Amino acid sequence: MFDFCADPDLLERGRWLACYLTTPKHMMFYQSFGVVILLMLITAPVALGAGFLGALATRSHIAPLRWLGKFYTSIVRGVPDIAFFLFVPLALDQGLEYLRHKAKCPDWDAPIRQGSDFVVCAQAKLPLSSTPQVWHELYGVALAIVAFAFVFGAFSAFVLSGAMNAVPRAQLETAEAYGMSRRQVTRRILIPQMWAYALPGLSNLWMILIKATPLLFLLGVEDVVYWARELGGSKTSAYAYPHADWRLWYFLALLVFYLGVTRLSEIAFARLTRRLSRGQPTAQGMKEARKGAPA
Amino acid sequence: MMSCIETIQSYGLRSIGLGERLLPRTDFTLCDQFVLIGSGMIWNLYFGLGALLLGFWASIGIALARNSENRFLRKPADWFVFIFRGSPLFIQFFFFYALFSQLPREGVPINLGVVQFTAETSWLTRAWGGALITLFLNTTAYAGEIFLGGLRSVPKGDLEAADAYGFSGWKKFRRITFPTMLRLAWPAYTNEAIFLFHATTLVYFSSFPARQQQGDALYYADYFASKTFNPFIPYPILAMYFILLTLAVVFVYGAIYRRLNRHLPSNQKRRIRYRPQLVR
Known about the structure:
The structure holds two protein chains of two kinds. Chain A is mainly α. Chain A is built from ten helices and two strands. Chain A has helices spanning 13-20, 24-58, 63-78, 81-104, 133-166, 169-177, 182-212, 224-232, 247-277, 281-292, and strands spanning 113-114, 117-118. The two termini of chain A are 48 Å apart. Chain B has a single domain, classed as MetI-like fold (Orthogonal Bundle), CATH 1.10.3720.10. Chain B has nine helices and two strands, in the order ααααββααααα. A two-stranded antiparallel ribbon of chain B has the order 1-2.
């Protein structure tokens, strides 16, 4: 980074630190913060979409669809989310490879599960073993996003269906009296009105999503936790910048980073709530009620 | 091929180091998976119950400190809650493990003038000690926030009535403020308990090592999933155990809630609703 970094052994303390904190590996560490934020920004709308479908399903008039919606929202809330983060990517990967195997290699007669192995033909591998490393990593990240969206979709389905139930019944009945069909009532009355009711729950979910992002580490993504462990571990003189075990300081930095992100989100959501409840007596009433209710 | 009874005998307490040492390596039966994952639940129960029992009292202290007029009590408590609620539990585990492993291995000498002794530190780097402390601090912060909400919504009339009866200080708190706060905060506290049990699965997936493969339920589920490369059996078993645990928590907390509300007319009683408001 700096010109004076050519020989780390000769540096005095301040410059040593400046050089140390700008090594290529540290640059990758800083980039991984961007990856985490990017992942949150991608996951949030995907999960919201999944939650929206889930919420509509729990209100559906078709019984199997309603059961499916209820099952989805309750199973995810009853089981630790980390179990889903471990289960969904593996299950999805095997499911996709199984389907591709059936489609691409119909004349393959060996069983797919052989004891402790999962064997599909080479053309069915995802991604193909010939593709460059970048695609393998992107595939891993995509599976992680699906796992997050699966879990947070269920949470947001719960929040959104609560919000849909909170829209005053009189509003919906009035729309029906005007001759709107069920679909029209949902699209023109229910969905526009529910957001003010959903916002407190959704802001809570966003906080939870932020705090779930370090679990990416468990899915093999090179995220902030990976780099903090990698860089913080003690480095002997075999390395250019030897130091003792500094993991404590790296994790302290991560704690501060997350505290900052949650604090900023809190401020942003407080503004948004004020904005959305402007001129809405119901939302304002809810806000007052929330002040009294245990948080 | 062992029968299922033998499997229970040899692996039922495997997670706490009793019984057969060697984990099965091939030919995993359904029974193996049920028994070992169930054996791992002992740790989930230990961490969850331990943190809840310790955290309950500490969180009431935190709530009282945050409600106090004295800013030297209020500010530190506010910061404590902000730090533990605002950061991921996963990172907290890593941080505390790094902190505890920096302590000198031979113990810290403590000199109290008359007596001098050495404080043991090695247990802090073990999951049963260090992870329990981390979970305890975490649940104290979350429950402290919940009880603060309860404390702030104790009806003014109740407190004025207590004053009118000549209650003051400790007696007023013991007889009026504390039971009402507990009653108001209980539904939210139930959710906190459920999610605390869910959070215990993080212990062996963060920095705390599982010695001699003695881990929690998720540790064994992951072990089976990676050995058999088939996630469709161990994870549903784990899910089943956790749903049972969640139902048990709802049952026990529901019974306590009914007891807390026993003086109210039945039309004022509300059932506990399971809300996913407090995950970390």
